[in-house]
């Protein structure tokens, strides 16, 4: 690809950037929390059809996925769960095929009064776009679409098949991405523009979600000693799991990518529900938890360690020793992933990165997870993850930095042109 061709593509990104931001704002404005992603998928389907892509829009059936590697159990109403894929088929097959994927599901906002601006009324100020999902990762999904647009506006068209995939459940199980593989979508490489602060995800953790179901013995609080407080018993188990977290972080010091990362294994009791009355010793408490695992660690073996930790802690408790808690697997059962066998797409991206950013691509060991794992682990499809800079993902006042988004869009457009090849439209 000549320097003149590169410049035409870069200029096209700049020319379309205001429209890109407007589309991103409209996308962020849709409150696509778990189970409510349908309007976002409708919007993506419309955007793809307007651009002439073949659109495949289907309902996800968990029964078709449950035996696949990386499946996580679904507990909520899944009757409206959909995946949308738009396919571009070239007139000339000369390049290498590509999957471009983003997720449209977002995490809950928390108390609205704790946001400076409403989370689903995105605003642009001081070079940033604020809103739930503005960073993670709706801006990246729309950036991928406008990166493709820029190639067309530069008078070019790709010479390889491209699947543009909008998935759900990235924040809880990953079955949206898994559904695309079950559906048969494949390519020579995958690119996911998650917000990575302009670095390439070299290695990422996996995640296990589980629920502690603790039962107590209710009595009136005036005779509390005669009962057993399920909430306090749950705290006893949480403290034991904190010790498991410490042990796993010690083990992580031997990992080649995470040995220099401070505290890569994070355990989080994220939801707690329990009790029925302030003056009754609570008879029940459920705690939903998340813990990370490193690449190469067996999910089954880590599950056994969690069970053993909970069991040992219960034996040391007056009530739980005779009334052991239950552990339910409640979402992610996801392995960690290391980017390997990816020399060709990385070389193509390095060229694009050098033009836009200058210098070599920086690597990042990521203490969260992305959908890249399914493509690499399940089908040996090298899966690159690179994107813009932002902050407050899963927190209040989430934002993406707009100039970083412009640069990431440019790098993506040049990468697509380099990897897939282009010819005159």
Automatic annotation (TrEMBL):
<keyword id="KW-0862">Zinc</keyword>
<dbReference type="Pfam" id="PF01546">
    <property type="entry name" value="Peptidase_M20"/>
</dbReference>
<dbReference type="InterPro" id="IPR002933">
    <property type="entry name" value="Peptidase_M20"/>
</dbReference>
<dbReference type="InterPro" id="IPR010182">
    <property type="entry name" value="ArgE/DapE"/>
</dbReference>
<dbReference type="InterPro" id="IPR050072">
    <property type="entry name" value="Peptidase_M20A"/>
</dbReference>
<comment type="similarity">
    <text>Belongs to the peptidase M20A family.</text>
</comment>
<feature type="domain" description="Peptidase M20 dimerisation">
    <location>
        <begin position="204"/>
        <end position="316"/>
    </location>
</feature>
<dbReference type="InterPro" id="IPR036264">
    <property type="entry name" value="Bact_exopeptidase_dim_dom"/>
</dbReference>
<keyword id="KW-0479">Metal-binding</keyword>
<keyword id="KW-0378">Hydrolase</keyword>
<keyword id="KW-0170">Cobalt</keyword>
<dbReference type="Pfam" id="PF07687">
    <property type="entry name" value="M20_dimer"/>
</dbReference>
<dbReference type="InterPro" id="IPR033687">
    <property type="entry name" value="YodQ-like"/>
</dbReference>
<dbReference type="GO" id="GO:0008777">
    <property type="term" value="F:acetylornithine deacetylase activity"/>
</dbReference>
<dbReference type="InterPro" id="IPR011650">
    <property type="entry name" value="Peptidase_M20_dimer"/>
</dbReference>
<protein>
    <submittedName>
        <fullName>Acetylornithine deacetylase</fullName>
        <ecNumber>3.5.1.16</ecNumber>
    </submittedName>
</protein>
